[in-house]
Specification:
Helices cover 52% and strands 14% of the residues. It is an alpha/beta fold. Helix 11 packs antiparallel against helix 12. The chain binds NADP nicotinamide-adenine-dinucleotide phosphate.
């Protein structure tokens, strides 16, 4: 007979405010894990499916917030968060408010101050997963805020994703990690699309070329770690070659893309960063030395 974990025994009542694609996935997962779940959404029809599965629909956001010790908020953006928080303040004392709406570190820190003034513990979270990943091993959620509040509610929150990571006490830090990671995502995807446009211009199918890119990425862990170490140390050995070599290669890459009529604006920016660093006498440094220019754009 399988042994029961703390999470198996956890039946903490939970409220979910916001039932878009993500809020619905969160509420569904809480219900499936046996939590009495109260839900509220601005447009009431979105609660119907959840009510049919056993959720309780609250008549208002304050009623919903009052119903559970753990209140999870997941709406479009911080404007929506502000509108909802304006109405629920009196219902929050003694509760843990977990805001899983994406936002900036400054917005998270402001919400934490607001929650403290209203007697609630505030955890900010970032979701690096699709709604269909919630409740599975692919669910990746980051949290920051008071450690005791996280630990008290950790068993419940772990139901949402296989990778549930507590970053630290500063409420803004989960958003820092979240924004940093989605930045890697967006910049990688746009670079990938430029690359697929290039091979497409040569009549090479994207699916034919994709394995070369995935293979290159799967071998990149060591380089990424070395670049992080160089950044921490402020010492930039020639990772993937010295900047002087990158400068020459970059000219050829720009020419190749231009010949196929592909946008080179971002590459020209990268080239200008390299040129500036080389001109400053750092041509023997590695690519990671560009961080000195990125973090200091006006000088
Ligand atoms: N979907 C994803 O793949 C994904 C992945 C990672 C993170 N996230 C994050 O999860 C959050 C929610 O995303 P989602 O996919 O659930 O978005 P969504 O499907 O577009 O739903 C948006 C939700 O916000 C509510 N809302 C918008 N403005 C409001 C306001 N002024 N007052 C009250 N409620 C308001 C909507 O209510 P109505 O139904 O009344 O319009 C709806 O419940 C976002 O911050 C997003 O970045 C989403």
């Amino acid at each position: 007979m399988p042994s029961m974990s703390a999470a198996d025994n956890d039946r903490t009542p939970v409220t979910v405010l916001g039932l878009g694609a993500m809020g619905t996935a969160l509420a569904t997962t809480f219900l499936e894990n046996g939590h009495p779940t109260t839900v509220w959404n601005r447009s009431t029809d979105k609660a119907e499916e959840l009510v049919a599965k056993g959720a309780v629909r609250a008549a208002s956001a304050p009623d919903a917030a009052a119903a559970s010790p753990l209140v999870v908020l997941c709406v479009l953006d911080h404007h929506a968060v502000s509108e909802i928080l304006d109405t629920v303040g009196d219902a929050l004392p003694g509760r843990v408010l977990v805001n899983l709406t994406s936002g900036t570190p400054a917005q998270a820190r402001a919400a934490a101050r607001w929650a403290a003034e209203h007697g609630a513990d505030y955890l900010d979270g970032g979701i690096l997963a699709d709604p269909q990943d919630i409740g599975t091993s692919n669910g990746f959620l980051l949290y920051s805020g008071p450690q005791d509040a996280f630990e008290t509610r950790e068993a419940t929150l772990k139901a949402l994703g296989g990778v549930t990571t507590y970053i630290g006490t500063d409420a803004g830090q989960a958003a820092v990690y979240f924004m940093a990671l989605i930045g890697v995502g967006y910049e990688t995807w746009i670079s990938y699309l430029h690359t697929l446009a290039l091979v497409g211009a040569e009549n090479i199918k994207a699916t034919t070329f994709a394995p070369f890119v995935t293979g290159m990425f799967s071998g990149m862990n060591e380089l990424l770690t070395a670049m992080a170490r160089a950044t921490d140390d402020g010492y930039y050995p020639p990772d993937a070659g010295p900047l002087g070599v990158h400068a020459a290669l970059m000219d050829d890459l720009i020419a190749t893309r231009q010949a196929s009529g592909i946008d080179v604006e971002r590459l020209e920016h990268v080239k200008s960063l390299i040129d500036r660093r080389v001109a400053e006498g750092h041509g023997a440094d590695g690519f990671s030395s560009l961080i000195e220019t990125i973090g200091n754009p006006s000088t």
